[in-house]
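Ticket closed. Logging final result for histidine kinase.
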Amino acid sequence: MMQKLKEMKQRWDHSIKAVLRRVSIFRRLNLSFMLLIMTAAIFLTFFSFYKYSAEIRANIDRYSSLLVQNVELKIQDTMQEYEESALTFYDDSKVIRALKENAQLYPFKTEADKNKYEENRYFVESRLYNMRYNQKYIVNVQFVTPREQYYMVEPDGYRRGGCIRNLEEFYKTDIYLIPQEKKGYPVWFDMAEQTNIFYPNEQSIYGYPNIITLGIGVYAPGNREFLGVLLMNVSLNAFSGAMEGYEAYKDGNTFLIGEDGVLMWFNPSLNAPAFPKDDLLFQEMKQDGQGIREKKIDGKKVILAYEQIPNTGVFVAYIAELAVLYKETYRIRNLCILVLLLIVVACFIISYYVTCSISEPVSQLVRVMKKTGDGKWNARYENSGHDEITILGDRFNEMADKTDQLIDQVYLSEIKRQKISISWANARLDALLMQINPHFLYNTLDIIRWEAMYEAEGESAVTRMIEKFSRLCRMGMRTGGNTITLKEGIEHARTYLDVINFRHREKIQLEIDMQADEEAIYIPQFMLQPIMENAVVHAFDDGSCGYRIVIRACITGAELQITVRDNGKGMSREEVDQLTVNMERTDLADENIGLVNVYQRIRLFYGDACGIGITSRLGEGTEIRITLPVRKYSENMEKSKGEEDGIQSFNCR
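Final structure:
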C-alpha cells in the first residue's frame, strides 16, 4: 500500500513539474509569487465584502418588511375608523326597526302604511347622512335592500351623496353578494368596476374615481333576517398619511396595490421603480399574503416587500432598485478593489526584480538560439557565471559551430541544384520565343506571294507591304528586355493588321480602347500579334468583309486585363475546351501555336496566377482575356552569372 502511494506521489510530482516546465522561468516565478499574494488578498477582500453585503441585505429586508408592516397597520387603523363609523348605523336598534318595518309595509295597503314607510325611510337616510359628518374622505354612504336603495338625506330633505343607477345589475356583483357571505363582517372592495356602479347622481356621465368601498351585510338581531348591505365609498386620500415618519425611505416607492393595479402611490419618486403590471405577480402575492422577493423590472433588479391588509384584497408594497440600495456597498467594494490593485502592483514590482535575477541568463540564451534559428549562426552565448545555465551555453556554442559547418556543405549542394533548374527554364523560354519567328515569317512571305500575283504591274502596294513587314521585323529584333510597353504592343498589333489588310479590298477593322496608361505599363513581347493572327487565319478564314477586331485594356486592382475580341465564326464548346487543354500541354502543339506560345510565356513570366481565358460562341465570335500583373518597368528573363560562384538566375531590371 505504501509503495503504491509513493508511486502515485511520484507520478503526481512528475505531472506537475511537466506542466510548470511549459512556462518560462520568468513567468513561472513571477506568477507563482503573484498567485500566492493575490489569492490571499482577493479572498480577504471579497470575503469581507460578501459578509458586509449579506449584512446590508439582511438589514434591507428587515427595514423593508417593517416599513410595509407599519404602513399596513396605519391603513388598517384608518379602515377600522370607518368600520366603527359604520357600526353606529347597523348597531342602532331604531335603524334596524325602521328597516324591518319598511320591508313589511311594502306594498302599501293603506295611506297610513305609506306615511309610516316614508317616515322610516327619512329616518334611515338621515342616519346615513350623519355617518358622513366630520368625515371628509367619505364620498358616499348608501344602504341597499333586496328591493331598493337608501341615500344620504340632509335634515331639510335635500339628497346628498351618490346612487346606483342599475340596481338589478348591482345585485349580481361581488360588492352586494360577498358581504352577505361574510354574515356581517366588514369587507373592503378595490375593484375597478366601482366607477361603473356608484355615480354622484343619475345624470352624471362618470362614476366616483379613486375610491375604495366598505361593504357590511346587515341582519335583524333576533331571527338573523337579511335586511340589506351598508355601502361606504371612501376616497383613497384617506390613507395618504400612512407614510408619515418614513420620509427616509426615499430610495424606493410605496404603493397601495389592488386587484386591478396601483390604487395609491405614497411619496412618489420618479427615480424609483414603478410597480409592474403583472397579474401573475399579484396572484403570487395573494397566495403568500406577505413576503420579500427579488425581481427584474425593465432590466433592473429590484426588491419587493409586500403585506396584505386583513379582510381585503389590498396590499401595501414597497419597491426599490437594489443598485440604489447597494450604492454605498458598491462604493466600499470599489475601494477594496482599488486597494487590491495597489497590492498587486506592489507585489508585481517586487516579484519582477527577484525573478529577473534568475531569468535574465535564460532569456539571453533564448535570444541567441532565436538568432541562430533565423540563420545568424555566428551568434554565440556569452557565459558570465558558473551555474547550470553556463554549462548549457557552452554546449550550445559547440553545437552552433558544428551546425555552421554542415550548413556550408548543404548550401553548396543546393546552389548546384538551382543552377540546373534555372538553366532548364531559360532554355525552355528561349525555345518558345524562337518558335514564333519562323511561323510568322512563313505567313508573311505567303502574303507577299499572293499580293505579287494580284499586283501584276503595280509595284507601289508591294513596296508598302514590304515596308510594313520590315517594321515588324525591326520590332521583333528589339533588345533590352523580354517586355515592352503596352503602347509598343498595340503598335505591333496595328502594324501586323496593316500588313494583313494589303491583300484585302475591304479592310479588317481594328478598334483600340485603352483605359490604362499605355506608355507606363509593360507587357511581354509578341503577345497581341499571335492572338490577332489566330483570328485572321481561323476566325475570318482569311476573309475581310465586315470583320472587326477590338482590343481593350484596363487596370483592376493590381491586375492588367486585356481582351481581344473578334466577330468571326466562333468556336463550339468542345473546341474551346480542347484549346484550353492544348494550352496546358508542355509540348508545343501544331495548331494554335501562337496562342499556346503566348499562354506558356505568360506562365513562365508571372506564374500560375496569370494566364489566358477564352469565351466563344458559334457565329458570334471569340474573346481572348489576358490577365497580367501591373508592371511599370521592363523585365528581362535572361541568364546571368554571379560575381563569384557562376550561379544562373532570372533578373528583373
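The domain at 417-651 is CATH 3.30.565.10 (Heat Shock Protein 90). No further action required.
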